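note to self — DONT lose this again. spent like an hour looking for the file last time. sequence + predicted structure for the chain T wanted, 196 res
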Amino acid sequence: MEIRSSQIPPTLNGNTLEGYIAVYNDVADVKDFDGKVAKETIRKGAFKEALNGDDIVMYSSHDTKRLPLGRTKSKTLTLREDEKGLWFSLKLDKKIAEHKTIKALVERGDLFGASMGWWEADEKVVRTNRGGKLTREVSQINRLDHVCVINTPAYAMTDLRIREVLDQTPDLEAMKLRMEKAEKETQTLNSLLGIK
């Protein structure tokens, strides 16, 4: 499973949270299977197979042990491809404490990212070496494992959106620990820079 984050802030439209989980042709630096950094782009139409009707769940910060924020099966989460990328809409319910928290964090500007865990179609990822730089072009994502809202996109303390490629057995606890470490490092960096 792979993790990919978007740093485009979600927006509120009444009691609905909307935003982009991925933007087409946006270049991100990622670690490829062999650990080398590659320039990756997700091509238009890459989510067609992944949005084939499977139930996709939205969580907070990739924490799949917590209760879901919404899901496509219950129509509290909508996912669709448009000209820009993979768009989401989450219906917020004022009776759900975590929804109230998310709404407040977005209104304050503290929540500014979305992410996804996904499985790729190996034959649909083209790896090339251009001018000494490894590139990955993803034209098909087989399955979205989950999507999530995140307070800090993974590795946001750099100008890069880096995610690690995991083996075929997702280690969600290890992902959570890496994200917590990245969040702490971001807080430290923000403190040093005087950013609140």
